[in-house]
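Incident log, structure service

09:12 report received: a user says their structure output differs between two submissions of the same chain.
09:20 pulled the input from the user's history:
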Amino acid sequence: MPRVKVKRASTTIDMTAMCDVSFLLLTFFILTATARQPEPLQVDTPASVTQVKVPDDDLGLITIGDGGKVFFGVVNQHARGRMLELMSEKYSIPFTAEEKAKFSGMETFGVPMGNLKQLINMGPNDRVKPGLQPGIPVDTAGDALTNELFHWIYSARVATKELKDTEMRISIKGDAEEKYPEIKKVIDVLQSQKVNKFSLITSLRAGEEL
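09:34 re-ran on a clean worker, output below:
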């Protein structure tokens, strides 16, 4: 007896729901993403074969370049605000709530404490003009008020400890052409706070295999 052939119907999948989910996810990421701000001090980091990822939070970044200029930034926005409050008390320079909010949005800066108000009240595009910021004063004479980098780092560490009960990690991002004495000044500031563990940010060397 001949076998009866069953007519096969083509299988169709309704992709409407998948498209809706895809557009919802895309919209969510667009609305929640923050654009990376341009850096006021551009540096060309030395190359290496290390591929250790820098942490995304609880990080303080020291940038050195352009003949020894030092910039400092903290990843966590809440820590930035608390850090500014501590520095305001230390140097007796008051800041308004609006100025604190603007400072919390600044990823990095490099001016003396006396010029910080002026920098905060500039427009975002004006702040990052090359050569505008002269760098944070670094005086190796202990924790004197002239050693502003010392107090910025210390205040950032205290703020991170208060807010998250964890130690802030520190990374140094130096230009490949920067002279060693300028880097040594920053390392001396860290060691004066008994911070002997920090990361050096480098670019990945092309053509190298681990």
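09:41 both user submissions now match this output. Likely a transient worker issue. Closing.
09:42 reviewer note: Helices lie at 16-32, 77-91, 97-104, 116-120, 124-127, 148-164, 180-192. Residues 88 and 161 are 18 Å apart (CA to CA).
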